[in-house]
Amino acid sequence: MNFRYTTDEIHYVLDNSDAKAVVHTPELAKGVAKASKRIPKGWRPYALEVGEPYEHVLASATLGRETTRAPVGDDLIFLYTGGTTGMPKGVMWRNEDLYVGLWLQGHPHDTDPPDPIAAARAGKRVGTRLPVCPLMHGTGLFTTLATLAGGGTVVLIDDTGLDVERVWDTVEREHVQAITIVGDVFARPLLDALVAHRGRWDLTSLRSVTSSGVVFSPR
Question: Which CATH number fits domain 114-211: 3.30.460.10, 3.40.50.980, 3.40.50.2300, 3.30.70.360?
């Protein structure tokens, strides 16, 4: 979810999605708790704060009865859009359809994407990617999932906001091969930094810059 959501928006997404758990950082604990309390106890999602030992959570969990389930490919990913009006809208993506769609974006002439596990075992890896945009944005989330599905490495900057010098430092240090941005609001500051500090960074590893979610300006 968007880390800038208000309590009303957090409550709406948790309630609308029938979420069973919500993972959050410590600074968002208060908002998550207030939003969750508005959901009846029997349906209230489990709040897992980042840093809480995962083993402790498992040990304290109550085991339910086993159920049969559909193949993993039929699982749904709910992407809640920010929405220009009203509350966020849940867009449903079937897991396998999303994988195929992301594959076709990078391989338009190959309509039969390989099994990701078999490809990884065969030594085929997609390039190291740095999503410069937040993962709560569809562009950042989907390109990250595509990279992981292809056995690639995802590099993250653990901070909010856009620090362009830190982005280029990270590309150089981690030998990033692809970065993902969202239009001018990212592209212009990144380009301005390269102009202002010509020759400062070794970017020979970088092969591509992808952008989605908004149209570039002519500049």
Answer: 3.40.50.980
